[in-house]
Amino acid sequence: MPKKYVLGIDQSTQGTKALLFDATGGLIARCDEPHAQIINEKGWVEHDPAEIFQHVVKVVRTVVGKAGIAKNDIAAIGISNQRETALAWNRQTGEPVYNAIVWQCARGEAICQRLARQGAAESIKAATGLPLSPYFSAAKLAWILENIAGTRELMEKGDLCMGTMDSWLVYKLTGGKEYKTDYSNASRTQLFNITTLQWDESVCSRFGIEAKSLPQVCDSNALYGASDFAGYFDAPVLIHAVLGDSHGALFGQECHHPGMMKATYGTGSSVMLNIGETPVFSQKGLVTSLAWSFDGKVNYVLEGNINYTGAVITWLKDQLQLVASATETAEFAENSNPTDKCYFVPAFSGLGAPHWDSDATAMFTGITRVTGKNEIVRAALDCIAYQITDIVQLMRQESHMDIQELRADGGPTKNRYLMQFQADMLGIPVRVPEAEELSGIGAAYAAGLAIGLYDRVEVFKCIRHQKYQPKMAEARKEQQYTGWQRAVQQTLQHV
User: What range does the domain containing 226 cover?
Assistant: First the structure.
């Protein structure tokens, strides 16, 4: 009897999800497991790699049990992962030499400043498509080499693996047999040449990294090995797709052609525009990356990365305790005073695209005597839509493409106020799938397609959507957006 299920594993910033799909691509079960956010007084952010691996095994076992299917009926597995988060481990023992340094963590800033003083910024961007920044993996890996005793010696002996979360999971799941990453993840390390499609020896050298310590780069739908998930499966299951989470969402949103755009609303946000088979290099703060490589054919994207979007809602709930749950925020915003001019710029650890200012700090501005709880909550939601709008406007300018629609995914897209405000600010429809986790869906569908279980046209019909049309008057929209731009300029002045 043919195997008829596909597993998607989405290893994200806040936790790990397992998604189980049937033979038509329909989601039949899901399991989530959060992991610890390790944050110190300097604002450094880390994850425990061993905990994450354990949780990957746990959610797979749980979701199969929850669905009540025969575990041996799973045909393939696809993995999507938090990008830029970097770690290093001992090739011989399989043990991490340090915690994973999360993409949000800016501890590599001094390394980037040093390289900038050496005049390396332009050559690094020309090769990798990425502006020199501690946001990406390279500076994080360089920090490990410079600060964790014994790591450089391990590297020189060829016994150090340095990669992103996908390569760590592939390595662990295959018992150390496979050390691989895909083109989407490689393109986000700031070590990969997106034109030659190879690790760039010159750029690696700038960061003090030997390219031989980096994983083999494979097609996003390649075979990454097989795993029995710590003895759970009777026979190893094929891992047949790996994608960075935002790239998985782009694929899951069916943005397969140039001019199609999606925004993932997670802890932070990635706005991606498919620009086809030829790269476009931004002059105004966007980055150029690889969308994916399927069967030897690459697609490029323009991308804008935002550090804090969904995390702003978490901050309202956990730190400020203004709301008991994220679902309350829409009602508070809808009940706010429409004449209030409060803005919030969420630069908790600097601003990402298009500003790339690691020294900026968060601020409220425009607060008056009438500003209250509702208005503060609304300003926090609005800042998410404003930041997305900043990116979309730049993409229109630099790609010269006519963008007709934004496809949105992630937990915050369930917020009706936020999605309507997003459509109003952009002036184009926003299409939101009923399914929440497009990253894992994209990876699972890629795996199912790779083994021939799914049909490329039919499988995406499983995903239903809600569409938000712009309603706000043009004059009102311009007034609102101009106020946001003023607030950002105040933040960038470090006042």
Answer: 5-244
